[in-house]
Write a structure and sequence with these properties.
The chain is of the alpha/beta class. Helix content is 41%, strand content 23%. The protein contains 16 helices and 17 strands. Strands 9-10-8-7-6-5-4-1-11 form a 9-stranded mixed beta sheet, sandwiched between helices. It has a 3-stranded antiparallel beta sheet with strand order 12-13-14, with no helix packed on it. It has a 3-stranded antiparallel beta sheet with strand order 15-17-16. It binds iron/sulfur cluster.
Length: 372
């Protein structure tokens, strides 16, 4: 019997490194692209042989900056994925792209290879903020990329938006929301900036050179985004994700629901059965065929993971699905650890669905710590 799975391809190249980024992406090593793509094709072929029952329901090409790949290499990767696995007729195939790197030739290769959804790293509408955080593009480039997407027939696209940038004001957020809505995306992701260790951002914030908005202002920014997007027909379906009816990202939703997916590429993660794995992040290690890091999940780990991921979704986690996976209900799995968050209104358990309340979403970590 065939089994629906996701497929994630990681493209670890960027034009330059953004100030806040600690993702596995590397600048200035474009000459490695053909070898990395070749290794990814071989990896896909191996997985296709190993997991013969797989039908790909969603594929997500992330990075890094996939749109930095030469069109021929992108075409090769897409063809290799389809040669390794059968794809469902309605498979969602998403590709991340960054403004300033999107070209008609790249889009043509994507469309020919079956890409039908794009996520564009737009971030904000103010060039001064984009420059400061090290993005390589202006807002004009965002508009130009969107017009290229439309020209290629790729109307199902997401715009990424960042909140809490150094020097960002409420007015900037308002202006960004208006500018993004004017581009009529199908989906908007709103991420709060995280200060990661060993990034330029951390150094600048620590030295006091860059000032971040305080916690209250950042919460107000998020609320403004949430309200504005709701008023404009975007339903929040996850903590950071908003979509027009019918346009949520199926690949990401499936990850939060713990559906299995195969990962290929340097630093790519995968999840099949009770194993999660992560390929080596450094390109030389990946090219040498160093083994992935494998985590075997215990039953208890898996249950906690199901709640940790499922609660991110505004629709919550149905008890029937939890029971089907683990043979027990929420009470048997978490006992009295559920009492406090249910009593003080951070969680609800109504109609057999466990859900974070609006307040609970703001303090999700506290709920998880108590359930752990
Ligand atoms: S484009 Fe994305 S992956 Fe690349 S450096 Fe910037 S934030 Fe990191």
């Amino acid at each position: 019997m065939s089994r629906g799975r996701g497929l994630y391809l990681h493209v670890p190249f960027c034009k330059s490194k953004c100030a806040y980024c600690d993702f596995p992406s590397y600048a200035g090593c474009e000459e490695e692209m053909p070898r990395v793509a070749g290794r990814m094709c071989a990896e896909l072929f191996d997985w296709g042989k190993k997991l013969k029952d797989t039908v790909i329901e969603t594929m997500y090409i992330g990075g890094g900056t996939p749109s930095l790949l030469p069109p021929a290499l992108m075409g090769r990767l897409l063809a290799a994925a389809r040669a390794a696995f059968p794809f469902a007729p309605d498979a969602e195939v998403s590709c991340e792209m960054n403004p300033g790197t999107v070209t008609p030739a790249f889009l043509e290769a994507c469309v020919r290879g079956g890409v039908n959804r794009v996520s564009l790293g737009a971030q904000c509408a103010q060039d001064r903020l984009l420059r400061q955080i090290g993005r390589i593009h202006t807002f004009r480039d965002v508009r130009a990329s969107v017009s290229l997407l439309r020209g290629a027939g790729l109307t199902n696209f997401n715009l990424d938006m960042m909140l809490g940038l150094p020097g960002q004001t409420m007015e900037d957020v308002r202006e960004t929301l208006d500018a993004f809505l004017a581009l009529s995306p199908a989906h908007i992701s709103c991420y709060a900036l995280i200060v990661e260790e060993n990034t330029l951002l951390e150094k600048k914030v620590r030295s006091g050179e860059w000032l971040l908005p305080d916690e209250d202002t950042e919460r107000d920014m998020y609320e403004l985004a949430r309200e504005t997007l709701a008023q404009n027909g975007y339903r929040q379906y996850e903590i950071s994700n908003f979509a027009r009816e019918g346009f949520l990202c199926r690949h990401n939703r499936d990850c939060w629901l713990r559906h299995e997916y195969i990962g290929a590429g340097a630093a790519a993660c995968g999840f099949v059965g009770n194993r999660r794995w992560r390929n080596p992040a450094a390109i030389p290690d990946y090219l040498r065929g160093e083994p992935p890091e494998i985590t075997v999940l215990s039953e208890e780990d898996a249950r906690f993971e199901a709640v940790m991921l499922g609660l991110r979704l505004t629709d919550g986690l149905p008890e029937a699905a939890f029971r089907a996976s683990f043979g027990v209900g929420f009470r048997e799995a978490f006992g009295e650890k559920l009492d406090a968050p249910l009593r003080d209104g951070r969680l609800t358990l109504d109609g057999g669905v466990l859900r974070l309340t609006r307040r609970g979403m703001d303090v999700m970590n506290s709920v998880l710590v108590e359930l752990l």
